[in-house]
Amino acid sequence: MAARRPFDDFDVNAVGTLNLLEAARRACPEAPIVHLSTNKVYGDAPNRIPLREMPTRWDYENPAFTEGISESLSIDQSLHSLFGASKVSADVMVQEYGRHFGMPTCCLRGGCITGPSHSGVELHGFLSYLVRTNLTGKTYHVYGYKGKQVRDQIHASDVSRFVEEFIKAPRCGEVYNCGGGRANSCSILEAFERVAAITGHPMKWEYVDQARRGDHICYISDTSKMRRHYPGWSVTKSLDDCIREITDSWIGWL
User: Fold this and answer.
1) Alpha-carbon distances of 56 from 66, 86, 173, rounded to whole Å
2) What is d(CA 106, CA 165) in angstroms, rounded to the nearest whole number?
3) 210 in helix, strand or coil?
4) How far apart are the C-alpha atoms of 67 and 235, rounded to whole Å?
5) Which residues neighbour 42 within 8 Å (Cβ) at sequence distance 6 or greater?
């Protein structure tokens, strides 16, 4: 979509964010601003991290990444997509207004934010789409990496709880990788097993030996900075909690 409408994409993500920041600076500079950014700001840089192949997933070979990817990973010299580039612009502007003007701002670089109201489709909303496909008996298509590509899932309510914590004790120009962490991570193959165990339906799937361009092979959010800055916050919804809530929601709609 962004590649087809680059001006619209940039206007919404970058210029829209700038408009909100400038309005806040002029009218209420003391008001905390939490920007929902994305891990797409890292582009395909996570794919340069050495990996090892496990029976059902890819994982980081370097022990430095045991907890996942931290905010220190560079956003430069990587393939972003036009959507990712517009999100980088917004992300950096939020940081700059925080640092330059001393405004209370932060960027939450979310990965897979999910929950029972997530209307997943094939190219977006991995877990919700997978559950819906399972419940309807349709075929799920796996694109590349042997189905061992990994994502961490975080429930939207846990994201909201962090926003509340930040508003109570804001910082200026901060950045946080906002995800479920290693405990809430799974590969597509592992997700098939978890979902089938909860729904009682076997997963139908086909493999397409062509990965999506720029797709992350393994992305797990290191949430240690979030927890260090806000010790009252933690991930409260497990991966299975998310799957159960999504399952119940789709059953009510299908």
Assistant:
1) 17, 34, 38
2) 12
3) coil
4) 14
5) 69, 73, 74, 75, 78, 109
Give the mean pLDDT of the chain: 96
Instruction: Provide the total of helices (H) and of strands (E) in the chain, helices listed first.
Output: 8, 11
Q: Which CATH class is domain 6-115+124-253?
A: alpha beta
Neighbouring C-beta atoms of residue 147, cutoff 10 Å: 18
Distances (CA, A) of 178 to 4, 23, 102, 237, 254: 29, 26, 23, 14, 31
* pTM for the structure as a whole: 0.95
Of the candidates 118, 160, 111, 147, the residue with the CA atom closest to the CA atom of residue 247: 118
Beta carbons of 150 and 58 less than 8 angstroms apart: yes
User: Within 151-201, where are the H helices?
Assistant: 156-168, 188-199
- The SS3 assignment for 56 reads coil
Domain boundaries, the chain: 6-115+124-253
Cα gap 153→185, rounded to integer Å:
6
Measured between alpha carbons, how far is residue 109 from residues 22, 40, 88, 146, 176 in Å? 21, 8, 10, 26, 6
The position carrying tokens 């309510």 is: 157
E strand or H helix that includes residue 207: strand 204-208
The token pair at 226 is 């979030």
Q: Tens digit of pLDDT for each residue in 177-234?
A: 999 999 999 999 999 999 999 999 999 999 999 998 889 999 999 999 999 999 999 9
Q: Pull the structure tokens for residue 247.
A: 């399952």
Torsion sign (Cα): 140, 141, 146, 151: negative
Model confidence over 143-159: pLDDT tens digits?
999 999 999 999 999 99
